[in-house]
């Protein structure tokens, strides 16, 4: 066996006692110093067990390899009842499982809105009463290959983006984006909200479906890669991606529905977040490709329901590990302030799960002030995420970092070791049902979700 | 030379000699034209890359200078060459990886100013690129540190060909969005020393982990999984983690040194507690840090260098660990061209492990001297065996007898060599080669301490004011193996290893902080003999004698003879001669050999059963 | 911090400036010079990443390079971790008693490294396969040797291919000091050749190659100090003993199959303006010569590998 260090010029990585490092400095031995700190409290034994799991390294390679090599394509737009196992009286919602009793204002508002949309109640009071009585079955989007932004409520008549992974064959869904302001996903359910949803079901969805039939599948991986280089981070800024999408679809929209083309394109092009939803589905289908690899400590879902923040881990199947959702720190619209903010909500953290959003902040200098920081903080945020991720995305690159791939694939053990929690960019929903969006900012997930997942991973380690 | 591109001391340093003008190092071609009229300066610089946007800014600044008519500073792509050609510049040949500079100025002065400004701007770009990665965000795990140096140390630690470049164009994935000039960023050197330097020089990395024991596993595993050798200085690591790391290292081609590995030397670089050793033919595999230090220092004093010291951790040769690292280290040294002889220094291994090691040793092409403490050998005789195996006759090991009270100037020491044949050489000559051969009569080269004692000056009985009758010997040690060796050699006495886990929890190692040992020395009762080790080298107390000497003087003054084993090399930062002088001036008898020190101390204590 | 910029006339300052102590890693080639008694020296050249000192002594190396880790680790170098303070050419310095003093800076070695580490046994078959690879890589590189097409360079190639000591020495004598710069191309070629002959000769047990290295070394070092720059003369003396920079040693290891050749060669070729290419050319001539000598070549007209 040959050891290269015996004949090359030695470089040393030092972790720990600085005096040992200084002795190397005195010998002019080049070194990189690890700024080591103790792991999250109480994780010591679980870490040791999980790290020692002989399956871990290969499992993580496989899982993150699938996550980063998935090739999401937008293939169709279809009504939810056609594609999802969604019997009447069942709604999907964002985040880990939740009951009406524990649901926050915006979640309740969106559920009320969906109840009205589906004609299950005549008015707000009746809807709330039915929901409180348990007349509607609530299930997480994530249990149905689906993701939804903010409240993420999906009901039968809503139309969905269908994204297929050309590499591994998975499929994922996400609703159509309603725009900003008073919208269902922020818990608004007024007549204009319901009216818009009906228009989306009657006009927008069918026209997009027809257009996509003309264009054929759209390569979302390439589109996202381009958008990153155009200043999007694909969670809170989707302006470039939306433009690229509209550019791809516009001729086909005109061809498919000349009479409706103008209103459809005006709606899609006028909403800077229109791409958020197909982007989320692209992230979901990629993350799903990484699921169920025994021994893997890779996070395959991060999601919030407005009350809890939950994570799922590749090696632990569909189990959720939750902690209390935090209130985002950011900027507020108009006269709103932190007191109006609801705790963190939505499945849009699937973007961070797949290496976008807060993880790609360095790509989006235009919005750094919006989420409360300057460009150097954005770069720092992205850089720190390399600490807790397993890979750098081969296609999603950040020009400002020398086209380095975005940090992708959160590893539960690295979160515990470094104490660094995923950086999440998010919109802020009003606390009171029906308020809508009140701001946008950054939020940190609860450490307890990750330590709970770590403990479960430790239990799952086979006894040698 | 390096002034402009940040790298320096290259061979061609025309700037200094002025032979070919000051840009010689970066320019393949330079042309200056124009008489009286406008002046054109055209340069092709090789080995420099900057992104197109940065260069456009540079061009813009230069164009704005007074007296400058046109400036093109760009990578010499066909497009950019075309632009310069349209402006009427005469261009020499170049490749797309070269930097093209084309300046047109009103006169020579303006051209000179523009050229100077260009250098300043380009230097600024280089600094910006270099500083970006390294400084602000230190990695938080060994894994992240590895990633920072990615492409350098990859599996096996050998730099890979593809590690030299980082593709910067996003073209492949982004469907047409790409770095416009399809460039690649060369990772050679300016700032990221690890990345750059490693590309071609076969440099290799090692992780040195000294975080608290319960956390060492994670950091060490990062290294092992990346195929990187790791030295685990930390102690208190559960044995099952040690076994796991070492098994994993077998799969990844890495080596685990430790845990509780205090000493390693890799190609002359000392890690942990290590001495400044000259490079040489002897490779040491050490299950004991201080044991290896003693052997290596004696070899160095004898003028024989050491290629590497690979520590394996005190538990490696136990039945549980099975010598996994020892076997790998032996293999690695066997394959190392610089190592002509291997010394294996350890406490006696578990019997089944001993058998495996013996078999492995037999298969090696390199001769091995095995030193198992406690099986009748000591470290000094081991060093002597190594020297003989290399055909070198062991010298008499340096020693520095105490300067008796009242005689303070070391320079005026009486010639003890005469007074005590076979005793101590004059301190001034305590250098290998210059020492009177005191050991010639003794097989194994160890001077007979008995003779020294019978010579009078060091005989305990002859020391004024000491009680007669057998005394007790107190071994107050910082090095575990040195302590064990002294106990074996002396035969009896009370020996304490203050470097043991039991004494180091929550405090610095006694090689750094002598407080506990000073207390112990102060507690030695009159009439007993104190025996201490003082270990020099990297990581150790920068001036151990400063605090020990007064305590020694106090002990001697109250009737406690003090003997010191001074383990160090001539090159150690503390200065071996200066430390020896300070200790002997305080009244201690000082020996470079721990075995000789122990033997001497035992004689002073009046033991009969000294080995 | 400024070092050594005071006017040279003011030899003894009224108050000694505060000394700055630093440590580094020294080539064992410097050990004798460093450990002998203190000798005066002067700053021969100064760059941001290095200072060359000329020691007033007969022993070699009489030029010492004090460099930071980013610079090429020349065989006569003391490598320091911290940036080197500014110092002007001609400033006073001293070397000896274990210390290098430049102005108010005192440097001591806390590590010693071997500038001529043994290469270990090398398989001649592998070396023979490496030669065309190296030739192709060098030919493809935009970095060209300084003496391409020069008659003396051609003569050296031929002389070595034929193991003709006479022609080799004739060529070598023409090449010493030939070319511009601090290390003229001719010297770099010769240094590469000497190092390759010695290391590859030893590694393959080709006694004739080592013998040739000895004779060529004696010829080029005999009056090198009078014929080329001081730094280049010292580097020739180092090369005569097989001592070389890390970049050159890495290429030798690459040829022997102990690390990958291509990145090592790439790195070497980047050195200086032509230095790297010159050294690489010398290495190729040496490698080719070793192979020829093993094949029993050496008779006039018998050399088969003149293509290096």
UniProtKB/TrEMBL annotation, chain A:
It comes from the Bacteria. This is DUF1116 domain-containing protein. InterPro entries: AllG-like (IPR009499), OXTCase_su_AllG_h-dom (IPR024033). Gene3D superfamilies: conserved protein of unknown function from Enterococcus faecalis V583 (1.10.10.660), Enterococcus faecalis V583 domain (3.90.1710.10), v583 domain like (3.90.1700.10). Pfam families: AllG. Coiled coil: none annotated.
TrEMBL record, chain B:
GO terms for molecular function: succinate-CoA ligase (ADP-forming) activity; succinate-CoA ligase (GDP-forming) activity. Residues 476-602 form the ATP-citrate synthase/succinyl-CoA ligase C-terminal domain. Residues 155-196, 392-465 are annotated as: Disordered. Residues 280-370 form the CoA-binding domain. GO terms for biological process: tricarboxylic acid cycle. One of its GO terms (cellular component) is cytosol. It holds the Pfam family Ligase_CoA. InterPro entries: CoA-bd, SUCC_ACL_C, Succinyl-CoA_synth-like. This is FdrA protein. The lineage of its organism: Bacteria, Bacillati, Actinomycetota, Actinomycetes, Streptosporangiales.
Automatic annotation (TrEMBL), chain C:
Residues 1-34 are annotated as: Disordered. InterPro entries: AllH-like. This is DUF2877 domain-containing protein. It comes from Planobispora longispora.
